[in-house]
User: What shape does this take?
Amino acid sequence: MKGLLHYQFANYIRTHKYVPPVSVFIMILIINYTFIPNPILDSYSFTSLVLFFIMGWVTITILHAEDQGLQQLTILHAKNKSGYYLALVINCAFVGLILSIVAVVYPIVFHVFKPGLLTIHIVIGFLAHFSLVILSIALSLFFTRELVKSNVNSWWGVISILVVSLALAVAKADILKVKILTWILPPLRYSLEIMSVGDKFTSVPVLVYAQFAWIFIYSLILITIFIVVVSKSRKL
Amino acid sequence: MDVFIELKNVTKKFKNISVLEGVSLSIPSREITAIVGKNGSGKSTLLKMIGGLTKPDSGQIIFQNGEPVRIGYVPEVTPVVIPFTPREYLTYMGKIRGLPIEWLQKRINSLLEIFHMEENQNTRIEHFSKGMKQKVIIMQAMLEETDLLIMDEPLSGLDLNAQTEFERLLISLKERDISVILTCHETRLLEKVVDRILVIHQCQITYTRNQHIQDEPMNRIVFELSNTVSLNLLREKVTIEKEKETSSGHRLIELSVSKEQTNKIVREFLDRGATIQLLAPLEGENDFYDSFKKGVEIQ
Ligand SMILES: Nc1ncnc2c1ncn2[C@@H]1O[C@H](COP(=O)(O)OP(=O)(O)O)[C@@H](O)[C@H]1O
Ligand SMILES: [Mg+2]
Assistant: This one.
């Protein structure tokens, strides 16, 4: 697994496909914080949503980074298709982790927040970013070339699913009153609700952590489904 | 000649499409075998079965009488982007295979030597010609010690120079006791180096012959033999190229033997109760008849 992780990451870096999404993200961070001071959770909520979209981009580029011919050879060497895809997902999560940390630390380092920053803000801020990172990876995986033949459809698919998730989270539409759907639809709205409470609190109820945990569990279930499906497909 | 790979009655279907039907053949070791056939005739499928990547629906593939064979498999791929140097790429692949690092470095050194790639080991593969990329792709299949190298369409896309170089490479692999099986959709290519050509046609291996520009003339012999007779002793002396069940517990056996050995082999078969169905020179049949005519004229 270590070998796979190293190789895939090195390949991703060498192909320079990370440059556009990462630089766009950094630019949005800089622009967002040009005026000071800024509310804490509101800002984090915004950047976590931006990261949610950027991670769709990152996921597609990481899963498409290796030449398709080479990929066949690498899977033969790994002797394990699911391990190969797991390593790719871990690399996505790793890039997402770095970007989450950058998004959380940047405004603190440059002192652009209103006074009153607490450790709890940082914890919630990080959870908000990283949970959406994992959710975005999980949703985007299903639009990579393993399951979607054309590149154009990959991009449209990812953008659509991410936009729809966001729209459903914001709209509070009637369909959300159907109990089952709240379990099936991407749990993006939990993060948004958590982040909209304002900055004046000193502790968070356990429920909040439970909601973040649900976002992670939901994503892990999707990721597992993806890995099982692609390792079963007899494409060689 | 020891039998290296033996296919016994191998059948393979995909849904409704039959690819191979009851194919039996044997391939001796330390030879270069080419599998020829039209697109979609099942060359790649046969290679994958020999390489252990797919299983036949029925029948058996036996290696070296059951001993393990170390196989390197080169699929039909044409990677465009490889953003590494040969050394980097091979090291990554070796680590992914879980090979011990020190051993791996030594192995990569010797592969670079065999493939004459020492000078290019630190150049990014992207800048390589098609032929050089191909070499890297073959090297990655040989990261572990290899007895048998399987290559699917290794010539596709190579220019004439690269093809000649590839022929030389095949010869040097053979000198190192590595057996090679490759597919190729044209018979004429590689004619100089290939020892044996198998033609797939309509789910059968229809024509197999020792393709050597032989030093010695060969005869093709077809016997009919009862199924109860064991051929194990004979198999050590000759390579049976084709076996086919006929009705009533008999089978047809086709083999090529050198002219010199023909009498001896025929006697051995006749002693086992075989009947001769065909005995003819393998190549230059016309020469054979010509010399016959000359004989008549002299009288
Ligand atoms: N995985 C598969 N599923 C279904 N059909 C297949 C599969 N692989 C090959 N075939 C079919 O089997 C036949 C032989 O294919 P292949 O071995 O690739 O031929 P060749 O390499 O000689 O061009 C073709 O008709 C092809 O469509
Ligand atoms: Mg093929």
Remarks:
- Chain B has two domains: 3-198, 215-298.
- The first helix of chain B runs from residue 43 to 50.
- Chain B has eight helices and 13 strands.
